[in-house]
Structure formats: C-alpha cells, structure tokens
Design a protein that fits this description.
With about 475 residues, the protein is mainly α. The chain has helices spanning about 50-60, 60-80, 85-135, 140-170, 175-195, 200-210, 210-220, 225-230, 235-245, 255-265, 275, 285-300, 300-315, 320-345, 345-370, 375-400, 400-410, 415-445, 445-465, 475-485; strands spanning about 5, 10, 15, 25-30, 35-40.
Length: about 475
C-alpha cells in the first residue's frame, strides 16, 4: 500500500484526515516509531483554457437535458394535431422520459466506471441523438414514445456523469461554481426550448434539440478524461498528463497528484458493490445524498417546473406571461448561485434557497385560498405569480443544482458508481412520483398542495444545517475521507 516518494527512498502510508480537513501522512520514521506529517491540501488553481473548454463541452449535455424536459409543453398541441393523438397517448409520451431516466440511473455509475466519464457522456449523446431523430421522423405514437424513452435513458446518464466529471476535473477553489454550470445550462435549455417552441413547429424544435449532442460528440475528442478516473484504473502517466493539461503545463501538480494517488491507494482493495454501500461507514454520505434528492423533489421542484403553465392558468394568470417571467427570473438566479457557490459555500446557499422556496410555496398556497373571495381574485392572481417566481428564483439559486454538486463530491471514488446510481435513481423515482401525482393533488386541494411543499422546503433547512458537510475549498479526497471515517 505504500508509495515511493518522489524524492526517493521514503515510503508513505495511506492518508488520514484531521478535524480541520488536512491530510496526515503517517508512516515509519525509520527508527521504529511512528511519524505524522501534516500536509496542506494543495493550493488554489486558476481556470485554464482547457478547463473552461472541457466544462463548456460537457454542459452541452446539460442543455440537452433542459431541452428534453422543456420539449413536451410547447410541442403538445402540434404533436396531438399532426399525429391525431389522444390525451392518454400524449400523457404516455410526456411521462415515458422519466421512466427512461430511472432505467438510465440504474447503470449510469457502472458505465462511467467501465468506459470512463468521457465515454459515458458520448454514449448519452448517442442515446439523445437517436431520441431526437426518432421524434423528428415519427409518423405515429410508437416511434414518438421510443424516441422519448431514448431521450430519458440519455438524460438519466447525464444527470450523474456530468456533475461527476466536472467535479473531478476542477480545482477545489472553483469546483462548486463550475459544477453548478450544469444546472445553469439545464435552465437555459428548458427556457430556450419553451421560447423557440412558441415560434417553430415540433419537428423543427426536435431537430434543434439534437444540435448540442452533435457539438458535444465532436468536442469530446478535444478534452481530457477525468484524472481521478485514470488514476483509479491505474493509468498513472495519463492521469498526470490530464492533470497537467487541466491545471496548465507550467503549474506544479505534484501535491495534488500525490493526494489523488494516496487516496486511490487507500481504497484500491476495498470491495465495490451495492451491499458494501450500506455499511455503517457510508451511512453519512448516503443519508446526505439521498436526503437532498428526496427533499429537492418532494419540495415541489419538478412538479412546479413541469406544470407551471397549468398553475398560472388555474389561477387566472396569463400562461405565456408567467412562463416568460419564470425564465427571466430563474436563469439569472441560477447564474448568481454559480457565482456565489465558491464564495459563500454550499450550506448557506442551500438554506437560503430552501427558505425562499418555502416562502414561494406559502404565497402560492395563500393565493389559492384567496380565489374563493370574489373581491380578492385579482390579488390572488398577482400573489400566485409572485409565489411561483420566488419559488423558481430560489430553486435556481441552490436547491436545483447543489444536491448534484454535493452528490459528486461526497462519495469515495471506489463507491461512486454504486452510490451515484442509487442517488440518481432515487431522484428520478421521486420526480416521477411528484409529476404523476401533481395534477391529482391540485384537484384534491390546490392550497394544501403548496402548503405541503412549503413544509418540506422548511424541513430542508435543519437537514442541511445538521447533516450536510461544507465542501467549499476542500479536495474531493478530503471530503470523502472525512465523511467515511469510522
């Protein structure tokens, strides 16, 4: 398990972690005693052209994710008219993508471990490309549904591998902001698809949706593989070369490379399977990863995003105006979240975001109560707009993206495939439950639905305060080792 020092002769044993997050390299001092040298976790690094290019190429998949989610709303009337679909047939088209996402989540981690992060992204591109083209050339519901299912499989992979790849290539001082670009690109894809879909027909809209996948397939040839994955599979020269490309050829990467290698060596003989994940030592990261996804979805994120137009319509507000206002608010707020991520930290942003979504849901709930008062109907329409905009802006600020950032940071690399698949599957399953039941809940009690969302958003605050670690400015190896210490 030891590693020869670069200076020759000295052997070090696996890393330990102090309470302040530094590494301790413990080993034999040559005289029979033990020695412990505390190492700082490496300096901050600046963004390089290769890092920026790698991130931009990667988030082409995130744009595809957003475009796929946003496609069903503007395309609904055109597809139903041109293909003579019933409401039930179109509902199948809309929901089958979520089922595809759940299936994709089952093998996303193993695939990313088997063929690498770039390989998994490329495979997701092929699935999305086939999905979009199937929709473009569909003449009936079966090819339409097959295309939508293929899109779901692709974005099921994307939801895991994109944040993981960005987290693994980015220096610790930039990791949070760069990983949040994933959610920012999703927001842009969703909003752009809604706006473009109000102008162009559904086949052209699907064809436009395929463009980012083509760009990304070409771009993958020009970006490096994740250094941490290369180190994990024993390709030492390649992982150091990739790290040099990402940090700059003149940058001293020796400390970061040694930290990665040491951590890989401490875990290389650890068994990697789903059952091992349920050992006590992994309880903390598993509770955090799954808990954040459950709270994100059951707090109303997917339901309100998918059915915002229906909410505005039921409250007597202009659907088009409301959706445009949501896009105008949510995209900049997601950008603000990305900028603040590595300054304020993950936990404060998550708690502020949860507080905002709680307030937005409360206002929306009260607006539906006021609808029953004739003199306050106009005020109710304004209140629902305010509530949904506050919810959307707050959601974009933190809750939408930070759970995926943290998921990509907290699991040890040898367990990341199993853990990532479980967390991603939980997210997609909860998303399906919320989106499937949302309309039924609104029919049951519109105000009560939003009060339930508000309560869950409020509960997110103590969950984050008590259980979620602050990962800002820490190496992935530090975070992972500290969370799995016995």
């Amino acid at each position: 398990m030891g590693r020869e020092s670069r200076d020759g002769g000295c052997r070090t044993s696996p890393l330990l972690v102090t309470e302040d997050g530094n590494f301790i390299v413990s080993g034999d001092d040559g005289g029979g005693g033990s020695s412990g040298e505390v190492l700082e976790s490496g300096g901050d690094s600046a963004a390089t052209a290769v890092l920026v290019l790698s991130t931009l190429v990667t988030v082409c998949a995130s744009y595809t994710f957003g475009a796929a989610v946003g496609y069903s709303s503007p395309a609904e009337s055109g597809i139903m008219a041109d293909l003579d679909l019933s409401v039930a047939e179109y509902s199948m088209f809309g929901s089958i993508m979520t089922i595809g996402g759940m299936i994709g989540a089952l093998f996303c981690g193993k695939l990313a471990d088997l063929v690498g992060r770039r390989g998994a992204i490329g495979f997701s591109d092929l699935l999305c490309l086939m999905g979009w083209l199937a929709i473009v050339f569909s003449k009936g519901p079966w090819l339409l549904d097959l295309g939508r299912l293929s899109l779901g499989l692709g974005i099921g992979l994307i939801s895991y591998v994109v944040p993981v790849y960005i987290a693994e290539i980015t220096p610790k001082n930039l990791r949070g902001g760069y990983t949040t670009i994933h959610q920012f690109a999703i927001s842009i894809g969703l909003s752009a698809t809604y706006l473009i879909g109000s102008i162009l027909n559904w086949r052209t809209l699907a064809l436009i949706g395929a463009i980012p996948s083509v760009i990304q397939i070409l771009g993958l040839f020009f970006i490096p593989e994740s250094p941490r994955w290369l180190a994990k599979v024993g390709r030492e020269k390649e992982y150091e070369a990739a790290l040099h490309r990402l940090r700059g050829e003149k940058t001293d990467i020796s400390q970061e490379a040694a930290d990665i290698k040491d951590y890989i060596e401490t875990t290389q003989f650890t068994e990697n399977n789903v059952l091992q994940l349920f050992r006590a030592k992994y309880a903390h990261p598993l509770i955090v990863g799954i808990g954040l996804m459950v709270l994100q979805q059951f707090g109303g994120g997917s339901g309100i995003s998918y059915y915002a137009s229906s909410i505005f319509e039921s409250a007597g507000f202009s659907e088009t105006t409301g959706m445009i206002a949501m896009a105008i608010v949510q995209i900049p707020m997601t950008g603000v979240g990305a900028l603040l991520m590595d300054k304020s930290g993950r936990k404060p942003l998550l708690m502020v975001s949860a507080g905002g979504t709680c307030l937005g849901s409360l206002l929306a709930g009260f607006s539906f109560l006021l609808e029953d008062v004739p003199k306050l109907k106009e005020a109710a329409s304004i209140l629902v707009l305010a509530g949904i905009l506050i919810f959307g802006g707050s959601y974009g600020l933190g809750i939408a993206g930070i759970p995926w950032v943290i998921m990509s940071e907290i699991f040890p690399i040898h367990m990341k495939a199993s853990a990532g698949s479980i967390v991603t599957l939980v997210s997609w399953t909860c998303s399906w439950v919320v989106t499937y039941s949302f309309n039924f809940l609104l029919e049951w009690n519109s105000a009560g639905t939003f009060f339930i969302f508000s309560t869950i958003c409020f509960l997110t605050i103590p969950f984050v305060a008590k259980l979620v670690p602050e990962t800002k400015g820490r190496l992935l190896e530090e975070v992972q080792a500290s969370m799995t210490m016995n």
